[in-house]
Amino acid sequence: MTQTPDTRLVISRASISANLRNWRGLRGRMILYFSLASFAAALALSIVTYASTRTYLLKQRTEFATRQAFNNAQLVRTVISLNSSDAGDLMSNIRSERGGYAVLHLGESDSFYPQEPLRFTQSNMPTQFVAKTLSGVTGRQRFLFDGEPYEAVGVNVKAIDAQYFEAFPLSDVAQTLSTIRNTLTLGVLLITLTAGLLGLSISNRVLRPLRRVTSVATDIASGGLDIRLADETDPELARLATSFNNMVDAVH
To answer: Which domain does 237 fall in, by range?
Structure first.
């Protein structure tokens, strides 16, 4: 018999509808529950892991930046207290971290001495942060410069009426966190997929005895009254098989 396009369309729709009904059944729900539970657990664990790692890395970076900035500020204090005219030469020779920058402000002359005048000055730091440090408050703040993350430390050197600023790059921390975030995301997806496959496998094992019962019941309904369920090794399934066979015997 030749199938017309309309007939094939009806068959296709019926097949799709049957598949949807199957996925809404016990197997579909088991796979969905396994996947969602694993996704939620993996996502929660990933968020906690990422947040803890981020906090730790930034804390370590902040401690290092603060320690180095204070060491350099102490050097500035020693040199400037001897001769303030050495400020320019001093800043050009300050050993800051690669990719980092330093700026010195002398209150007596109200002058700024950037380490690299053509690349980085106090104007590249947050205005409020600079103003707060100039008012005599030592502190730190994260900011963006040329699209890259930095952490700035401002040290008030009261003994020489000066303020020392140093900015430290956070790009290495950002790259590490990005790698961790991508790895955790991939892990969540793999765990969810694995859980779905596990749910599929378990649902097949769970539904296999039910399919046998359905097959035997269909054969009995078709006239095979002597057909019975085979013995099962699993205690629960053995009780099911025995009860089913006893019911068939009672009806027969």
So the answer is: 22-43+177-251
